[in-house]
Amino acid sequence: MLKPNASSPAARADGRGRRPMRMTALIIWGLLALTAFCGFIALGVWQAERRVWKHELVERVEARIQAPATAAPAQSAWADVLAAPQDYEYLRVKLEGRLRYDQTTLVEANTVLGRGYWVMTPLQTPEDDIVFINRGFVPRAQPNDSWRDAPTPAQALSLTGLLRLSEPEGTFLRSNEPAQGLWYSRDVEQLASYLGLKPVAPYFIDVQAQKPVPPELTIEPPTRLPNEMLPVAGLTVIKFPDNHLMYMLTWFGLAIMVAAASAYVIREEYRLRRSR
Predict the structure, then answer these.
(1) What are the contacts of 69-76 at 24+ separation with CB within 8 A?
(2) I need a labelling partner for 39 at 20 to 30 A (CA). Which of 54, 149, 166, 237 fits?
């Protein structure tokens, strides 16, 4: 029986018309495949490590918010907060002092109750340190309602809440504009500088709510809320996106595809060389 000619359609259809790759091209292809494979494996391992770290972080934060409140870091510990912020964020703390209501600043907020403002008020401690307090949320339609009326005289208070790290330099798309009264992030250093306050703690406190927010308000947030409810505290969002498993599987899947493609090329090159 005659074998099909190498240039015939039958020979080309079953691959016998293709010549083996040149050795130089094969080496370059192999190096590129090896680089891609190692890169995808490294990215997969990195995502696996990030997933473990994220789960540990969630467990740590959940333990902190359930723990008894401890004294907020004093000025002597501020450097430690800056050096290791992960050891302090969402720590349940308590502190005493007087709120300086006349220096309250409203910062843009988007919450389960809709768009509005965070009410940031500086608190002066007995040691004359300044710690900004996020007293809660007010709707966009009520920035200057009667909730702003300050008690006279201002009484010393004892507050409990979650320690939050400063949010410097505005948001991704918008920077704070103090001169225009436009604040998009809770940058305590910038707030203190604008108000002429010092020394200021490198964190702020999200005040703990006295009672939970009625669930019906979060389903269909109203444009206005009763002034006696304002500011609404306890809206701290403690949620950490965890897509690391999906990313890990994606990178390892790409590595397997590169390995499978490489195995196919090696097999075909071996077959072609044997048939010559």
Answers:
(1) 69/93, 69/94, 69/160, 70/94, 71/95, 72/131, 72/163, 72/201, 72/205, 73/163, 73/201, 73/203, 74/127, 74/129, 75/127, 75/129, 75/199, 75/201
(2) 54
- Please tell me the distance from the alpha carbon of residue 54 to that of residue 183, in angstroms, as a whole number: 30
Q: How far apart are CA 195 and CA 46, in angstroms?
A: 44
The residue whose two tokens read 């201002």 is 154
Q: Which residues pair with 156 in a beta bridge?
A: 98
User: How many Cα atoms occupy the beta-carbon half-sphere of 155 within 13 Å?
Assistant: 4
Residue type at position 43: L
Integer Cα distance of 134 and 162 in angstroms: 10
Instruction: Tell me the pLDDT tens digit for each residue of 256-274.
Output: 999 999 888 888 888 887 8
Q: Report pLDDT digits (tens) over 62-81.
A: 888 888 999 999 999 999 99
Structure tokens at 50: 């990030």
With contact defined as beta carbons under 8 Å apart, do 142 and 221 qualify? Answer: no
Question: What is the phi-psi region of residue 131: left when phi exceeds 0, alpha when psi lies from -120 to 50, beta otherwise?
Answer: beta
DSSP 55: H
Torsion angle (degrees, nearest 10) of CA 203, 113, 212, 61 = -40
Can you spell out the DSSP letters for 203-268? Answer: EEEEEPPSSPPPHHHHHS--S---GGG-SB-----------HHHHHHHHHHHHHHHHHHHHHHHHH
